[in-house]
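Dear colleague,

Thank you for sharing your sequence with our group. We've completed the structure prediction you requested, and as agreed, I am returning the results in plain text so they can be pasted directly into your records. Please verify that the sequence below matches your submission; if there's any discrepancy, let me know and we will rerun it promptly.
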Amino acid sequence: MSSKVARIDIHTHIIQKDFPDFSKLYGGGRWPYLEAIDEETAHIMVNGHIFRKIDREAWDPEKRIERMIRDGINMEVLSPIPITLCYWASNEGAAKLARVQNEYLADVVKKYPTRFMALGTVPLQDVELALLEMDYCVHQLGLNGIMIGSNVNGLDLDDPNYQPFFEMAEQWKVPLFIHPYDMVGKERHAKYGMTYTVGMPIELALSVGNLLSGGILEKFPDLKICLAHGGGALPFILPRMDKGWEIWPSQQKIPHPPSYYAKKLFYDALVYEPENIKYLIQLAGYERLMMGTDYPFPVQETPPGKSISETNGLTSDEINAMLGLNAQAFLGI
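Please find the predicted structure tokens below.
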């Protein structure tokens, strides 16, 4: 990185144009695959139905760079689209798909090293395989961290099964980006677009609430974790969680209230409104916030960093930190 402050988007997603259809290898309809509409658009298909319509910016790095130039973004941190995590799948199939995606991410970064960094994926349904893939991602491919889903087939991230994963992420200094996945209460937020507007924030709050209350950051205090979507609903329910920690001590596993540990997390700043930025700063400090847009999807913040730039009372140093310097610190670059 140059001495000039770079604007870094910590939260973007990408998929390769030749994304493999693993249903042909392993059977079943849940494997996502791409169905081209024309040269500019495609459908992500799941179970024979359209999951999401995407355009060329979702798979073409050069189109992404054109957009970055228009938006004044120096670098994007690429990550897989969450539907491709496939924690439900067989260990073998999920491990192979993770490897395909991670090698694709590494190829994009290698081809455009001044424009892209990347977070890999691991088959978290099998912790031993996940550790092998994390090792491969960071120590051989040179990826900058790992994106993980918010639960694994209904198991929360505080489950003892995942402690070896967090232990090695801490030891290897691997940044983790937690993204909503397989949201709780799917049947209740399937209308009005609420999967993305309500389901994801609630899922993230439940997931990370368990992570904090389950003592993961007490056991592994040097873990570097960033939450997507500004932490979802979590920051706004922390006072209630702290109250529960106070009044039900027999049910608690941590010596400090949840908000104590929440201050140790990083958050992308995808919260849309300056008042929400101010609240996150009050919660964790501006040093813990990073610009993230969720590009190239419709919920993305446009222009990037809008809510940060429109927050009154910030110094230029605080703005520069949230627009790029904090991401450098989080990723260790």
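Summary note from our side: The CA atoms of residues 57 and 147 lie 20 Å apart.

Kind regards,
the structure core
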